[in-house]
Amino acid sequence: MVTVWWSSAGVIHHSFLPIGVSITADVYCEELNTMMEKLAHLLPALVNRSSPLLLHNNNAQQTFSKLQELELEVLRHPPYSPDLAPIDYYFFQNLDNFLAGNKFNTREAVQNAFRKYVASRTAHFFKKGINKLPLSWQRFIDCMGDYFD
């Protein structure tokens, strides 16, 4: 499993979880710490604003506490709504297309293919993905919360 944190400027942080490890509140909070350290280095203007914005759908109390500690403003979306989760509707959908037809025999091969995918994306790709979000939200509102493709 890979976790990915990205902005309109590109991938901020990704990590491959060890085999058998799930995303728990502890793991998520550690990922948040790492992502914020990298974000401060890569895009300090985002970290230095009054409160950086984060779109996420993890509702664990420990995660909520960590978000407050990091002074992140959370932009919530309805529970599991792939229409409104850019990582699902945009990033991983394009990754699926990039990997189509390939077979991987090792974990390292999968990781290398993922890194190749990220390296092949232009700044325009990430900006376009983030800019599609308000349009998706509007469609969600117009559909009164019903699912759409």
From the structure above, extract its key features.
two-stranded parallel sheet, globular, alpha+beta, single chain, Nucleotidyltransferase, domain 5, two-stranded antiparallel ribbon, about 150 residues
Describe the 3D structure:
The protein is an alpha+beta fold. The protein has a single domain, classed as Ribonuclease H-like superfamily/Ribonuclease H (Nucleotidyltransferase, domain 5), CATH 3.30.420. The protein is built from seven helices and four strands, in the order ββααβαβαααα. The protein has helices at residues 25-42, 44-47, 61-69, 86-99, 107-120, 123-131, 133-142; strands spanning 2-7, 10-16, 53-55, 73-75. A hairpin with a 2-residue loop joins β1 (2-7) and β2 (10-16). α1 (25-42) runs parallel beside α3 (61-69). The radius of gyration is 16 Å and the shape is globular. The protein starts with a strand and ends in a 7-residue tail after the last helix.
Gyration radius over CA: 16 Å
> What's the mean pLDDT score?
80
Report the top-level CATH class: Alpha Beta
User: Class by helix and strand content?
Assistant: alpha+beta
CATH topology: Nucleotidyltransferase, domain 5
Q: What global shape is seen?
A: globular
Count of helical stretches: 7
| Fraction of helical residues | 40-55%
Compressed to H and E, one letter per element, the order equals EEHHEHEHHHH
Q: Could you name the CATH homologous superfamily?
A: Ribonuclease H-like superfamily/Ribonuclease H
DSSP, total strands: 4
